[in-house]
Amino acid sequence: MARLLAASSTKLCSLLLLAITLFLAAMVNQSEAGIFDEIELIWGASRTFFFMDGDSEALALSLDQNQGSCFRSREKYLYVQIDVEIKLIDGDSAGTVCTIYTISEGPWEIHDEIDLEFLGNTTGEPYTLHTNIFANGVGGREQQFRLWFDPTADYHTYSIVWNPKHILILVDGKAIRDFKNNEDQGVGFPTWQAMRTFGSLWSAEDWATQGGRVKTDWTQAPFVSYYRNYNVTWCRPSPGVAWCGDEHKDSTHFDLDQKTLSDLQWVRDNSIIYDYCHDNVRFNATTIPKECTLQ
Ligand SMILES: *[C@@H]1O[C@H](CO)[C@@H](O)[C@H](O)[C@H]1NC(C)=O
Ligand SMILES: *[C@@H]1O[C@H](CO)[C@@H](O)[C@H](O)[C@H]1NC(C)=O
Ligand SMILES: *[C@@H]1O[C@H](CO)[C@@H](O)[C@H](O)[C@H]1NC(C)=O
After folding, report:
1. CA-CA distance, 123 to 104, in Å (whole number)?
2. Nearest 5°: CA angle at 115, between 112 and 119?
3. Which pLDDT score, from 0 to 100, does residue 242 have?
Protein backbone atom coordinates (compact mmCIF):
# COMPACT_ATOMS: atom_id res chain seq x y z
CA MET A 1 0.00 0.00 0.00
CA ALA A 2 2.75 2.41 1.02
CA ARG A 3 4.73 1.51 -2.10
CA LEU A 4 1.72 2.05 -4.26
CA LEU A 5 1.14 5.44 -2.71
CA ALA A 6 4.78 6.37 -3.14
CA ALA A 7 4.72 5.31 -6.77
CA SER A 8 1.60 7.25 -7.56
CA SER A 9 2.81 10.35 -5.76
CA THR A 10 6.09 10.21 -7.72
CA LYS A 11 4.04 10.02 -10.87
CA LEU A 12 1.93 12.90 -9.68
CA CYS A 13 5.09 14.89 -8.94
CA SER A 14 6.53 14.38 -12.38
CA LEU A 15 3.21 15.26 -13.98
CA LEU A 16 3.11 18.41 -11.90
CA LEU A 17 6.69 19.20 -12.88
CA LEU A 18 5.83 18.71 -16.51
CA ALA A 19 2.79 20.97 -16.15
CA ILE A 20 4.89 23.66 -14.48
CA THR A 21 7.61 23.40 -17.12
CA LEU A 22 5.09 23.66 -19.93
CA PHE A 23 3.45 26.55 -18.19
CA LEU A 24 6.74 28.42 -17.70
CA ALA A 25 7.59 27.81 -21.32
CA ALA A 26 4.27 29.36 -22.28
CA MET A 27 4.65 32.29 -19.89
CA VAL A 28 8.21 33.16 -20.83
CA ASN A 29 7.72 33.73 -24.47
CA GLN A 30 10.09 36.52 -24.95
CA SER A 31 10.16 38.90 -27.83
CA GLU A 32 13.55 39.48 -29.40
CA ALA A 33 12.61 42.84 -30.84
CA GLY A 34 13.34 46.11 -29.10
CA ILE A 35 11.50 49.39 -28.88
CA PHE A 36 11.98 50.18 -32.59
CA ASP A 37 9.82 47.23 -33.63
CA GLU A 38 7.59 46.81 -30.62
CA ILE A 39 5.95 50.21 -30.53
CA GLU A 40 4.34 52.76 -32.82
CA LEU A 41 3.89 56.48 -32.38
CA ILE A 42 0.31 57.59 -32.22
CA TRP A 43 0.57 61.29 -31.63
CA GLY A 44 3.22 63.96 -31.68
CA ALA A 45 5.34 61.82 -34.03
CA SER A 46 7.01 64.89 -35.48
CA ARG A 47 8.46 65.79 -32.10
CA THR A 48 9.77 62.35 -31.12
CA PHE A 49 12.86 60.55 -32.26
CA PHE A 50 14.30 57.06 -32.14
CA PHE A 51 18.03 56.71 -31.52
CA MET A 52 20.66 54.26 -30.33
CA ASP A 53 21.81 54.93 -26.79
CA GLY A 54 24.94 52.79 -26.72
CA ASP A 55 23.60 49.30 -27.44
CA SER A 56 20.05 50.19 -26.48
CA GLU A 57 17.20 51.14 -28.74
CA ALA A 58 15.83 54.36 -27.30
CA LEU A 59 12.99 56.77 -27.89
CA ALA A 60 12.70 60.42 -26.93
CA LEU A 61 9.24 61.89 -26.38
CA SER A 62 8.84 65.62 -26.29
CA LEU A 63 6.31 68.21 -25.30
CA ASP A 64 5.87 71.83 -26.21
CA GLN A 65 3.02 74.27 -25.78
CA ASN A 66 1.20 72.86 -28.80
CA GLN A 67 1.31 69.16 -28.12
CA GLY A 68 2.89 66.23 -26.35
CA SER A 69 3.65 62.81 -27.74
CA CYS A 70 2.58 59.24 -27.26
CA PHE A 71 3.48 55.72 -28.31
CA ARG A 72 1.76 52.38 -27.94
CA SER A 73 2.77 48.77 -28.31
CA ARG A 74 1.85 47.09 -31.57
CA GLU A 75 0.77 43.98 -29.66
CA LYS A 76 -1.94 43.47 -27.09
CA TYR A 77 -1.09 41.26 -24.15
CA LEU A 78 -3.14 39.05 -21.88
CA TYR A 79 -0.83 38.79 -18.87
CA VAL A 80 2.58 40.29 -19.35
CA GLN A 81 5.72 41.58 -17.76
CA ILE A 82 6.88 44.91 -19.13
CA ASP A 83 10.22 46.39 -18.15
CA VAL A 84 11.26 49.73 -19.54
CA GLU A 85 13.99 52.17 -18.61
CA ILE A 86 12.91 55.78 -18.36
CA LYS A 87 14.86 58.99 -17.79
CA LEU A 88 12.59 61.87 -16.85
CA ILE A 89 12.73 65.55 -17.80
CA ASP A 90 15.40 67.27 -15.77
CA GLY A 91 15.28 70.81 -14.41
CA ASP A 92 11.88 72.44 -14.30
CA SER A 93 9.27 69.83 -15.22
CA ALA A 94 6.32 71.44 -13.42
CA GLY A 95 2.96 70.68 -15.01
CA THR A 96 4.28 67.80 -17.13
CA VAL A 97 3.21 64.18 -16.86
CA CYS A 98 5.27 61.33 -18.27
CA THR A 99 3.57 57.94 -18.33
CA ILE A 100 3.89 54.25 -18.91
CA TYR A 101 0.64 52.31 -18.66
CA THR A 102 -1.39 49.45 -20.04
CA ILE A 103 -5.02 49.75 -21.07
CA SER A 104 -7.64 47.55 -22.70
CA GLU A 105 -9.65 48.59 -25.74
CA GLY A 106 -13.42 48.43 -25.85
CA PRO A 107 -16.06 50.07 -23.67
CA TRP A 108 -14.72 52.50 -21.07
CA GLU A 109 -17.30 51.31 -18.51
CA ILE A 110 -15.60 47.92 -18.25
CA HIS A 111 -12.03 48.81 -19.18
CA ASP A 112 -8.89 47.58 -17.41
CA GLU A 113 -5.83 49.78 -16.87
CA ILE A 114 -2.55 49.80 -14.95
CA ASP A 115 -1.03 53.27 -14.64
CA LEU A 116 2.31 54.80 -13.79
CA GLU A 117 2.34 58.58 -14.11
CA PHE A 118 5.37 60.67 -13.21
CA LEU A 119 4.21 64.09 -12.09
CA GLY A 120 6.84 66.74 -12.75
CA ASN A 121 7.93 69.45 -10.37
CA THR A 122 9.89 72.66 -10.15
CA THR A 123 13.68 72.45 -10.30
CA GLY A 124 15.10 70.55 -7.34
CA GLU A 125 11.70 69.39 -6.06
CA PRO A 126 10.83 65.72 -6.22
CA TYR A 127 8.71 63.97 -8.82
CA THR A 128 5.67 62.04 -7.61
CA LEU A 129 5.03 58.58 -9.02
CA HIS A 130 1.26 58.30 -9.23
CA THR A 131 -0.25 54.82 -9.80
CA ASN A 132 -3.76 53.56 -10.34
CA ILE A 133 -5.46 50.29 -11.27
CA PHE A 134 -8.78 49.88 -13.08
CA ALA A 135 -10.57 46.56 -13.30
CA ASN A 136 -13.89 46.19 -15.11
CA GLY A 137 -14.12 49.98 -15.30
CA VAL A 138 -13.59 50.53 -11.57
CA GLY A 139 -10.57 52.69 -10.70
CA GLY A 140 -10.05 55.23 -7.95
CA ARG A 141 -7.22 53.09 -6.56
CA GLU A 142 -4.56 55.76 -6.39
CA GLN A 143 -1.27 55.23 -4.63
CA GLN A 144 1.57 57.74 -4.85
CA PHE A 145 5.23 57.29 -4.15
CA ARG A 146 8.31 59.43 -3.57
CA LEU A 147 11.22 57.85 -5.41
CA TRP A 148 14.38 57.20 -3.40
CA PHE A 149 16.64 58.51 -6.18
CA ASP A 150 16.66 61.33 -8.68
CA PRO A 151 14.76 59.91 -11.69
CA THR A 152 16.07 62.68 -13.95
CA ALA A 153 19.76 61.97 -13.39
CA ASP A 154 19.77 58.58 -15.07
CA TYR A 155 17.63 55.78 -16.48
CA HIS A 156 15.76 53.58 -14.02
CA THR A 157 13.75 50.45 -14.72
CA TYR A 158 9.99 50.55 -14.22
CA SER A 159 8.05 47.30 -14.48
CA ILE A 160 4.48 46.14 -14.65
CA VAL A 161 3.93 42.48 -13.86
CA TRP A 162 0.41 41.26 -14.60
CA ASN A 163 -0.34 37.62 -14.00
CA PRO A 164 -3.55 35.81 -13.06
CA LYS A 165 -2.93 36.28 -9.35
CA HIS A 166 -1.24 39.66 -8.92
CA ILE A 167 -0.50 42.98 -10.50
CA LEU A 168 2.88 44.20 -9.32
CA ILE A 169 4.56 47.50 -10.02
CA LEU A 170 8.32 47.54 -9.58
CA VAL A 171 11.00 50.20 -9.63
CA ASP A 172 14.54 48.97 -10.27
CA GLY A 173 13.33 45.48 -9.39
CA LYS A 174 11.85 46.60 -6.07
CA ALA A 175 8.12 45.88 -5.75
CA ILE A 176 6.30 49.06 -4.76
CA ARG A 177 2.71 47.96 -5.27
CA ASP A 178 0.76 44.71 -5.22
CA PHE A 179 -2.86 44.37 -6.32
CA LYS A 180 -4.08 40.90 -5.60
CA ASN A 181 -6.70 38.96 -7.51
CA ASN A 182 -9.59 38.90 -5.04
CA GLU A 183 -12.26 38.08 -7.60
CA ASP A 184 -13.59 35.33 -5.34
CA GLN A 185 -14.30 38.09 -2.79
CA GLY A 186 -16.12 40.22 -5.35
CA VAL A 187 -13.24 42.56 -6.25
CA GLY A 188 -12.62 43.09 -9.96
CA PHE A 189 -9.37 41.95 -11.52
CA PRO A 190 -8.23 42.16 -15.17
CA THR A 191 -8.52 38.61 -16.45
CA TRP A 192 -9.91 38.62 -19.98
CA GLN A 193 -9.32 41.88 -21.83
CA ALA A 194 -5.93 42.14 -23.52
CA MET A 195 -4.10 45.38 -22.87
CA ARG A 196 -1.64 47.44 -24.86
CA THR A 197 1.25 49.41 -23.42
CA PHE A 198 1.25 53.18 -23.85
CA GLY A 199 3.86 55.76 -23.00
CA SER A 200 3.27 59.48 -23.22
CA LEU A 201 4.45 62.92 -22.32
CA TRP A 202 1.81 65.57 -21.93
CA SER A 203 0.84 68.65 -19.99
CA ALA A 204 -1.55 68.66 -17.04
CA GLU A 205 -0.60 71.94 -15.52
CA ASP A 206 -4.03 72.44 -14.03
CA TRP A 207 -3.49 69.60 -11.51
CA ALA A 208 -0.16 67.80 -11.82
CA THR A 209 2.21 69.87 -9.75
CA GLN A 210 1.50 70.81 -6.17
CA GLY A 211 -2.20 70.44 -6.86
CA GLY A 212 -2.10 72.75 -9.91
CA ARG A 213 -0.60 75.75 -8.07
CA VAL A 214 2.59 75.55 -10.13
CA LYS A 215 2.14 75.92 -13.89
CA THR A 216 4.44 74.87 -16.70
CA ASP A 217 7.17 77.31 -17.64
CA TRP A 218 6.83 77.07 -21.41
CA THR A 219 10.01 79.09 -21.96
CA GLN A 220 11.79 75.83 -20.95
CA ALA A 221 10.11 73.83 -23.76
CA PRO A 222 10.59 71.47 -25.44
CA PHE A 223 10.52 69.05 -22.53
CA VAL A 224 12.02 65.64 -23.29
CA SER A 225 11.77 62.25 -21.57
CA TYR A 226 13.60 59.12 -22.70
CA TYR A 227 12.58 55.46 -22.88
CA ARG A 228 14.91 52.58 -23.67
CA ASN A 229 15.25 48.79 -23.35
CA TYR A 230 11.54 48.10 -23.69
CA ASN A 231 11.42 44.42 -22.73
CA VAL A 232 8.18 42.56 -22.84
CA THR A 233 7.61 38.99 -21.68
CA TRP A 234 4.16 37.75 -22.45
CA CYS A 235 1.94 34.86 -23.37
CA ARG A 236 1.32 34.31 -27.02
CA PRO A 237 -1.29 31.91 -28.24
CA SER A 238 0.52 29.50 -30.51
CA PRO A 239 0.17 25.85 -31.52
CA GLY A 240 0.46 23.64 -28.45
CA VAL A 241 0.44 26.57 -26.05
CA ALA A 242 -2.75 27.35 -24.20
CA TRP A 243 -3.87 30.95 -24.21
CA CYS A 244 -2.35 32.07 -20.92
CA GLY A 245 -5.64 33.40 -19.66
CA ASP A 246 -6.61 29.79 -19.16
CA GLU A 247 -3.90 29.21 -16.58
CA HIS A 248 -5.20 28.62 -13.12
CA LYS A 249 -4.72 31.57 -10.85
CA ASP A 250 -3.93 29.33 -7.91
CA SER A 251 -0.65 28.14 -9.42
CA THR A 252 1.99 28.64 -6.73
CA HIS A 253 4.18 30.04 -9.49
CA PHE A 254 2.45 33.38 -8.92
CA ASP A 255 2.99 33.52 -5.15
CA LEU A 256 4.98 36.49 -3.90
CA ASP A 257 8.44 35.59 -2.69
CA GLN A 258 10.07 36.84 0.49
CA LYS A 259 12.03 39.56 -1.30
CA THR A 260 8.86 40.98 -2.85
CA LEU A 261 7.12 40.99 0.51
CA SER A 262 9.99 42.76 2.24
CA ASP A 263 10.28 45.28 -0.64
CA LEU A 264 6.60 46.09 -0.28
CA GLN A 265 7.08 46.64 3.44
CA TRP A 266 10.14 48.84 2.83
CA VAL A 267 8.13 50.96 0.40
CA ARG A 268 5.27 51.30 2.91
CA ASP A 269 7.80 52.52 5.48
CA ASN A 270 9.88 54.77 3.23
CA SER A 271 8.29 55.77 -0.04
CA ILE A 272 4.49 55.81 -0.14
CA ILE A 273 2.98 59.27 0.22
CA TYR A 274 -0.68 58.59 -0.61
CA ASP A 275 -2.79 55.46 -0.35
CA TYR A 276 -6.50 55.50 -1.19
CA CYS A 277 -7.00 52.70 1.32
CA HIS A 278 -5.98 55.07 4.11
CA ASP A 279 -7.89 58.10 2.89
CA ASN A 280 -10.35 58.71 5.71
CA VAL A 281 -11.69 61.82 4.05
CA ARG A 282 -12.80 59.88 0.97
CA PHE A 283 -13.90 56.68 2.65
CA ASN A 284 -15.40 55.51 5.88
CA ALA A 285 -15.97 52.04 7.24
CA THR A 286 -18.97 51.50 4.97
CA THR A 287 -17.59 52.99 1.75
CA ILE A 288 -13.98 51.78 1.84
CA PRO A 289 -13.22 49.63 -1.23
CA LYS A 290 -13.42 45.94 -0.43
CA GLU A 291 -9.82 45.15 -1.38
CA CYS A 292 -8.54 47.57 1.28
CA THR A 293 -9.95 45.31 3.96
CA LEU A 294 -8.49 42.19 2.31
CA GLN A 295 -4.83 42.91 1.53
C1 LIG B 1 6.67 68.82 -5.69
O2 LIG B 1 7.38 69.33 -4.61
C3 LIG B 1 6.60 69.69 -3.48
C4 LIG B 1 7.52 70.33 -2.47
O5 LIG B 1 8.59 69.47 -2.14
C6 LIG B 1 5.89 68.45 -2.96
O7 LIG B 1 5.04 68.80 -1.91
C8 LIG B 1 5.09 67.79 -4.08
O9 LIG B 1 4.52 66.59 -3.62
C10 LIG B 1 6.01 67.51 -5.25
N11 LIG B 1 5.35 66.82 -6.34
C12 LIG B 1 4.32 67.26 -7.03
C13 LIG B 1 3.86 66.45 -8.16
O14 LIG B 1 3.74 68.31 -6.79
C1 LIG C 1 13.63 40.77 -20.27
O2 LIG C 1 12.87 40.39 -19.14
C3 LIG C 1 12.94 39.01 -18.85
C4 LIG C 1 11.96 38.71 -17.73
O5 LIG C 1 12.27 39.44 -16.57
C6 LIG C 1 14.38 38.63 -18.51
O7 LIG C 1 14.45 37.24 -18.27
C8 LIG C 1 15.28 39.01 -19.69
O9 LIG C 1 16.62 38.77 -19.35
C10 LIG C 1 15.10 40.46 -20.07
N11 LIG C 1 15.82 40.73 -21.29
C12 LIG C 1 16.64 41.74 -21.44
C13 LIG C 1 17.25 41.89 -22.79
O14 LIG C 1 16.89 42.52 -20.52
C1 LIG D 1 -20.04 57.00 5.07
O2 LIG D 1 -20.07 57.80 3.89
C3 LIG D 1 -21.29 57.73 3.20
C4 LIG D 1 -21.11 58.46 1.86
O5 LIG D 1 -20.32 59.58 2.02
C6 LIG D 1 -22.39 58.34 4.08
O7 LIG D 1 -23.62 58.31 3.40
C8 LIG D 1 -22.47 57.53 5.36
O9 LIG D 1 -23.40 58.12 6.24
C10 LIG D 1 -21.11 57.44 6.04
N11 LIG D 1 -21.21 56.49 7.15
C12 LIG D 1 -20.65 56.72 8.34
C13 LIG D 1 -20.78 55.60 9.34
O14 LIG D 1 -20.07 57.74 8.59
Report:
1. 35
2. 150
3. 57
Q: Quick check: bond before 222 cis, omega within 30? A: yes
Catalytic residue, candidates 57, 113, 247, 291: 113
Residue 259: burial class (beta carbons within 10 Å; 0-12, 13-18, 19+): exposed
Ordered alpha helix ranges (H), 39-75 = none
Which domains does the chain carry?
A: 2-293 (2.60.120.200)
Which residues partner with 83 through β-bridges? 159, 231
Please identify, by atom number, the ligand 3 atom nearest to the C-alpha of residue 284: 1
Closest to 232 measured CA to CA, from 267, 263, 199, 260: 199
Q: How high is the pLDDT of residue 3?
A: 44
Mean pLDDT score of the chain, rounded to an integer?
A: 88
Question: What residue type is 204 in one-letter code?
Answer: A
| Helices and strands counted in the chain (H then E) | 3, 16
Q: Which residues line ligand 3 (CB under 6 A)?
A: 284-287
Report the chain (295 residues): mean pLDDT per 10 consecutive residues. Answer: 43 40 43 78 91 92 94 93 97 97 96 98 96 98 98 98 95 98 95 95 93 94 96 78 63 90 98 98 96 88
User: Which residue, judged by its Cα, is nearest atom 7 of ligand 1?
Assistant: 210
* Nearest alpha carbon to residue 103 among 126, 134, 130, 81: 134
Among all ligands shown, which has an atom nearest to the Cα of 233? 2
Please confirm, yes or no, whether 113 is among the known catalytic residues: yes
Q: Which ligand is nearest to the CA of 24?
A: 2
Would you say how long the chain is, in residues? Answer: 295
Which pLDDT value is given to residue 257?
96
Beta strands 96-104 and 195-203, pairing class: antiparallel
Q: Which residues pair with 73 in a beta bridge?
A: 39
